[in-house]
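INFO batch 0412 | record 1 of 1 | parsing
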Amino acid sequence: MTMDAAAPVVAVIPAKGRSRRVPHKNVAPLAGVAMFRHSVRVARQVRAIGHVVVSSDDPEILAGAEEEGARPMPRPPHLAGDDVRNFDVLVDLLATLRRLGLAPSILVLLQPTTPFRTAAPLGAMVEALAEDVDADSLITVVPATRPVGRLDDGLWLPDTTPRQRMKSDVARHAVSGHAFLMRPRSTLDAGTLLGSRIRAVPLPEEWLDIDIDLPADLFIAEQVARPFFAR
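INFO prediction complete | emitting tokens
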């Protein structure tokens, strides 16, 4: 693996205090542990990740991050709203890291709401992006098994093109929220989250992409959380 020791890999866990659908979602217990802590713990198990930071506006989360051995990074109030994009959070955080003398070669974005990760696959993703010097970023994907389209006045209009119809046997994949890795200089510095050359890693099991956004999602996640995190 090619890695610049002077430009470390930094994992970022964005964990704001408020949530529109599930109150205090990022500190909701999952297998008896505040949800954001699972992301911190797996990041700290990956040897290639040199630093783990938690971006939050919530004092409880920032204190919990420090307890887990991560660096708490207080988030400005204007980046704590419901509609704030991860892109804006990362741009602000990257500027802060650079002011502190920490210029990451790779950022690893781990959203707390997709907590079912293990260290070995995450470490392999870091290595894959580090070795592909032409790649701007790396994402995880899952098979897109259902046709997609848009609704127009009560009608469903499929999103298809002649090329897609001719190659209907070609497998299609959707972006997963499991992990996003990016080289800051060719992504965030260029005004984009992922850049133009995006490596993709299919998840070995689709259920690992459980995204906890609603109370029902949290209930479903709890059914598999204890055996998963006990491994």
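INFO post-check: The longest strand covers residues 173-182.
INFO record closed
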